[in-house]
Amino acid sequence: MTDNFRDHEDRDRFELEVDGTIAFVTYRKSPGAIMLVHTEVPPELGGRGVGSTLGRATLDAVRAGGRALSVECDFIRNFMTRHPEYNDLLAPGEEAKTSAATYKAGCFCGAVELEVKGKPVFAGYCHCRDCQAWSAAPINAFSLWKADSVRVTRGEAEIGTFHKTENSWRKFCKVCGGHLMTDHPRMRLIDVYANLLQGYTHEPTLHANYASKMVSVKDGLPKFWDLPAELGGSGKTLPD
């Protein structure tokens, strides 16, 4: 795919062409320096890993060019948070900005907004009966964050809470019913639903509660009977 990557200097952007459609990262260059400004991946290329491929190719091109890097683009900043091997490209003072990448999320109607900072402690898929019922889906994509990394920025009074058990306090918007996050007090972690986080690329490392799966997923990731030992589970795994 990177064979179709190029630096289109006339348009001040790096481009990746896939099936005749172009995804790009715009930039501003100055002597010895480059700032990455904005990334755009057309909707028809979504779900194919094009954004990650473009991000990696862009940063490889910056490295080859030998320019000091500044990052204005949230997508590239978040990509670098997940791939710190590129942090040496950053101009002095830029690394702190990148490591503090933020993601925004909100409910269905927009009455409630959240902000999440940094990196999730765990990311994966949950197959438990409660998540299946709550999400009305066979699998829930979870991203678990430290509590101090999650902040409500709008509409806190509109957040409702339901807890079937003491392990999971599920949060939703009282206006539209849109799901927001689940607080897991015993883990001291908060699951902000991965598909709500703008600019966040879900990089799962495990399947939880696979014993109660509704569908099988043969992706090579570890399948835990309940939870990993680090999250208070048995640590027992199941085959794909």
How would you describe the overall organization of this protein?
The protein has 240 residues and is an alpha+beta fold. It is 15% helix and 37% strand. The chain contains 4 helices and 17 strands. The chain has a 7-stranded mixed β-sheet with strand order 11-12-13-14-9-8-15. It has a 5-stranded mixed β-sheet with strand order 1-2-3-4-5. A 3-stranded antiparallel β-sheet has the order 6-7-10, with no helix packed on it. A hairpin with a 5-residue loop joins strand 12 and strand 13 (179-184). It is globular and about 60 Å long. The model has no long low-confidence stretch (mean pLDDT 90).
Tell me what portion of residues adopts beta-strand conformation: 35-45%
Biggest sheet, open or closed, and with what strands and sense? 7 strands, mixed
Structural class: alpha+beta
Radius of gyration: 20 Å
Q: Helix amount, in percent?
A: 10-25%
Segments where pLDDT lies below 50 for 5+ residues? Answer: none
Précis, in short:
With 240 residues, the protein is of the alpha+beta class.
Describe how the helices and strands are arranged.
Elements: E1 5-8, E2 13-18, E3 21-30, E4 33-40, H1 50-65, E5 68-71, H2 74-82, H3 95-99, E6 102-106, E7 113-117, E8 122-126, H4 129-135, E9 140-146, E10 150-154, E11 159-165, E12 168-173, E13 179-184, E14 189-192, E15 206-208, E16 223-224, E17 237-238
Parallel strand pairs: 4-5, 8-15
Antiparallel strand pairs: 1-2, 2-3, 3-4, 6-7, 7-10, 8-9, 9-14, 11-12, 12-13, 13-14, 16-17
